[in-house]
Inverse folding.
C-alpha cells in the first residue's frame, strides 16, 4: 500500500530558528513529490520535486529530494510567525489517473 | 488561482438529511477531486473524477456519492448525513503548469477554498 509519512507531526519553534520537516514515502511508480502549505484555509502549492539532489528554493524555504532513500526535507530558515501552518507532503505517481498520496502533515507553530 | 469555487462555504445540517456540495471550475480541467480533512487524519480522498461521467472511489468513499455531468461541476452528495461526516471538505483540480525546462508538469493539485460541514 502506498504511503507518505511526515515527521514530526507538530513542532513549536521561536522566531529566527531554522526548522527541517521530513517526508518519507513508499509508493509504486513514483513520479514527483510535492509540498503544500496550509494556513487557516486551503493548501497552497510550494514545490514540486522530481529529481534527486536538486534543491528548490523560494525565499527562506528550500526543499530537496532523495530518490534512493525515498525521502524529502523542507527547510525553513529564519522562521517568522507567518510561517505557522500545516505543511503537507504528497507524492504523485506515473500510473494513469491515480491521485496524489498525502501525508498527514506537520503542524508548525512559530512563536515570537 | 485555479478558478475553483465551492458552495456552500458553510453548512449546518441534521443527521439523516441529504447534503450536496458543489465544486465549480472555470478552466476546463479534466481531473477533479473531493477530500475531507480532519484533525489527526490529514487530507483523505473521498472520490475523484477523470472526465465527464468518469469517477472513481478514494480511500473514504463510504457514505458519499459523486456526479460529474459536465466538465466544470463535480458534486459530492451525502445521501443521509451522519455526525462522523462533520468535516472540512476540499475540492481540488489537477492543472498543468509550465516548468523551467520548457515542458508541462501535470502533477500539481490546486485546492478550492473548502466547505465546513457540521452534522448535528
Amino acid at each position: 500500500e502506498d504511503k507518505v509519512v511526515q515527521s514530526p507531526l507538530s513542532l513549536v519553534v521561536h522566531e529566527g530558528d531554522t526548522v527541517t520537516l521530513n517526508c518519507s514515502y513508499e509508493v509504486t511508480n513514483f513520479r514527483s513529490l510535492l509540498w503544500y502549505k496550509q494556513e487557516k484555509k486551503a493548501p497552497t502549492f510550494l514545490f514540486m520535486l522530481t529529481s534527486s539532489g536538486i534543491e528548490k528554493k523560494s525565499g527562506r524555504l528550500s526543499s530537496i529530494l532523495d530518490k534512493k532513500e525515498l525521502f524529502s526535507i523542507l527547510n525553513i530558515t529564519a522562521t517568522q510567525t507567518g510561517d505557522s501552518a500545516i505543511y503537507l507532503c504528497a507524492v504523485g505517481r506515473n500510473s494513469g489517473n491515480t491521485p496524489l498520496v498525502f501525508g498527514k502533515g506537520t503542524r508548525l507553530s512559530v512563536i515570537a | 488561482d485555479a478558478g475553483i469555487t465551492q458552495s456552500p462555504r458553510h453548512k449546518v445540517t441534521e443527521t439523516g438529511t441529504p447534503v450536496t456540495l458543489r465544486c465549480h471550475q472555470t478552466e476546463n480541467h479534466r481531473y477533479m477531486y473531493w477530500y475531507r480533512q480532519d484533525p489527526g487524519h490529514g487530507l483523505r480522498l473521498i472520490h475523484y473524477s477523470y472526465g465527464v461521467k468518469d469517477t472513481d472511489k478514494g480511500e473514504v468513499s463510504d457514505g458519499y456519492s459523486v456526479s460529474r455531468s459536465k466538465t466544470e461541476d463535480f458534486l459530492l452528495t451525502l445521501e443521509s448525513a451522519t455526525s462522523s461526516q462533520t468535516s472540512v471538505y476540499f475540492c481540488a483540480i489537477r492543472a498543468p503548469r509550465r516548468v523551467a525546462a520548457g515542458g508541462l508538469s501535470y502533477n500539481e493539485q490546486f485546492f478550492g477554498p473548502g466547505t465546513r460541514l457540521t452534522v448535528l
